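chain below, 216 aa
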Amino acid sequence: MIAEAGVDRVLTLDLHAAQIQGFFDIPVDNLYASPVFALDIEHHFKGAMDDIMVVSPDVGGVARARELAKRINAPLSIVDKRREKAGEIAEMTVIGNVAGKKCIIVDDICDTAGTLCKAAEVLMQNGATEVHSYITHGVLSGPAVERVQNSVMKSLVITDSIEPTDAVKACPNIRIVPTAPMFAQAILNIWNGTSVSSLFETDTLVPIYEGMYQRG
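prediction:
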């Protein structure tokens, strides 16, 4: 339907499943939030990078978390969730030693934030000194904002992929990082016939986000 409307190329951000790209009959470029997150982490945790532990909130998100961990040269931990019965609250177990670490949970989507906030509690119970979360798509529906505000999480960082509500903007521990500069550069690269995949590298984004993040 999109192609029939005249669209000849699509740009996306952190597709939930890579296979979605194959559903289109036109070129699809899937951009990633991880290089933007890496820049933000290097800026906000400058001088404390050795204390960082990247955390996947479930086994299914390990590849995403590992990608960010590699970018910032940090170790990886996993929160393993198990449900004995459907509808029950999952029992969470931390795989990896997070004691004394500033934990960064990374995921693609946060809806009601229940699981995210519970994971943060479990990490603190296991000795983490701080918990921060980096989520690409901040749906934040229902009680999500209140849960985040009342949680042990020191901060929740989301992108501008979804227009934030007034409640999200007003929440003191939710911060929004823009992906618009990256998308603008991707559009320019397509127009000029140059590489879009170059934007997958954190170093490529440094001049694009110049003034917002200063390295060194």
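The first helix runs from residue 34 to 44. The beta strands are 10-13, 28-31, 52-56, 76-82, 91-95, 102-110, 130-138, 155-159, 174-177.
thats it, cya
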